[in-house]
User: Which sequence fits this backbone?
């Protein structure tokens, strides 16, 4: 094939080849360089190109394979520029601010996914690559790719739902510290036990709750499971919750007078109600008052510290924050693992580490928890 024939056969596809390279490499200069290199390869093999029936398809396949080889080599780092979702151009033209804000949120969520999930969701949902192409880039099989993609999409949906919660709609619009007064006092719930009934599996128990219950009731975690506690998968974790019983689905510790038999060692969620916690994403949190949750009236003002009824409130709040952010970090670790057997192994390890393994009754709980937390972070690969 002479130079003129080569130009006529292959140069018309330059724009398409550049688009393919840019879609995969996310960098204009690198895409152009790769296309030029592809043309050099084609020129070097020009004598054998006469037998090719579809020059366009052959050229596109060559450029894709060159991109895949580059990405798979590990020597090329994808640009960390903002991800361009396929619908962004249409949305921008429509000038729909609400939808554009949602796209911005999705891009932000993708940017905070585990690296492997980011890569796969970008290749599949943003760039439109086939599963076969993703296999070439990542070296993963299609099953692992589908698992990671499913987890990434699930996390994106969950994050969007969390961000859509409007505190103005469920609270008095204010954030508080434990030193502030809030209108939550309800006369010690006299004549009312609504919040102890029909709660389903929502009374989640953290490690301190289990410590209080096992030491206060002088029993083991297994004893609790056989009587008043059950296990559910919540946010990707196996977690214990208080088991509702009877026709009215009430707390097992609610007596015939509608009073709590374990009030001194009641779970943290029970102490908190009707308050909630708003986490700042930087290791801390504040409280807010849920104005529609408790129906008992009239309400009086009470200091949050006193409402919680927890000794050493500073240490307790540190524990609450540590546990919350550890779970978030662990979720990211688990989301990046495609082997189901390993995920299950980590689930069982965390259940044993924080719940099943007995806490020493005569020793400070917070010290024990932080020891276990350090061990768990090391075991599953969380920094800090």
Assistant:
């Amino acid at each position: 094939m002479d130079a003129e024939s080569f130009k006529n056969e292959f140069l018309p596809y330059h724009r398409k080849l550049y688009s393919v390279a840019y879609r995969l490499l996310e960098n204009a200069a690198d895409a152009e360089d790769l296309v030029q290199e592809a043309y050099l390869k084609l020129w070097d093999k020009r004598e054998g190109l006469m037998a090719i029936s579809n020059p366009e398809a052959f050229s596109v396949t060559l450029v894709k394979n060159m991109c895949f080889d580059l990405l798979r080599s590990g020597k090329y780092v994808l640009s960390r520029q903002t991800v361009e979702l396929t619908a962004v151009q249409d949305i921008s033209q429509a000038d729909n601010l609400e939808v554009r804000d949602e796209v911005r949120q999705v891009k932000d969520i993708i940017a905070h996914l585990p690296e492997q999930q980011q890569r796969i969701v970008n290749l599949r949902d943003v760039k439109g690559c086939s599963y076969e192409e993703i296999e070439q880039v990542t070296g993963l099989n299609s099953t692992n790719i589908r698992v990671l993609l499913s987890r990434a999409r699930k996390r994106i949906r969950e994050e969007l739902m969390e961000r859509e919660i409007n505190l103005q709609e469920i609270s008095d619009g204010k954030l508080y510290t434990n030193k502030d007064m809030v209108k939550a006092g309800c006369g010690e719930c006299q004549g009312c036990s609504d919040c102890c009934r029909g709660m389903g599996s929502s009374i989640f128990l953290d490690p301190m709750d289990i410590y209080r219950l096992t030491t206060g009731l002088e029993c083991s975690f297994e004893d609790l499971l056989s009587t008043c506690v059950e296990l559910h998968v919540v946010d990707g974790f196996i977690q214990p919750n208080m088991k509702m019983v009877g026709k009215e689905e009430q707390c097992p510790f609610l007596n015939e007078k509608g009073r709590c038999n374990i009030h001194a060692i009641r779970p943290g969620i029970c102490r908190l109600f009707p308050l909630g916690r708003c986490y700042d994403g930087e290791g801390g949190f504040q409280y807010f008052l849920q104005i529609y949750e408790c129906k008992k009236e009239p309400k009086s003002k009470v200091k949050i510290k006193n409402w919680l009824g927890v000794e050493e409130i500073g240490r307790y709040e540190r524990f609450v924050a540590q546990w919350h952010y550890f779970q978030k970090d662990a979720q990211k670790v688990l989301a990046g693992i495609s082997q189901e057997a390993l995920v299950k192994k980590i689930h069982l390890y965390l259940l044993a580490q924080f719940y099943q393994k007995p806490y020493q009754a005569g020793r400070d709980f917070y010290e024990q928890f932080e020891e276990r937390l350090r061990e768990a972070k090391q075991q599953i690969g969380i920094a800090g």
Summary: The two ends are 62 Å apart (CA to CA). The domain at 3-73 is CATH 1.10.1740.10 (Rna Polymerase Sigma Factor; Chain: A). The first helix runs from residue 3 to 10. Residues 79-99 have pLDDT under 50 and may be disordered.
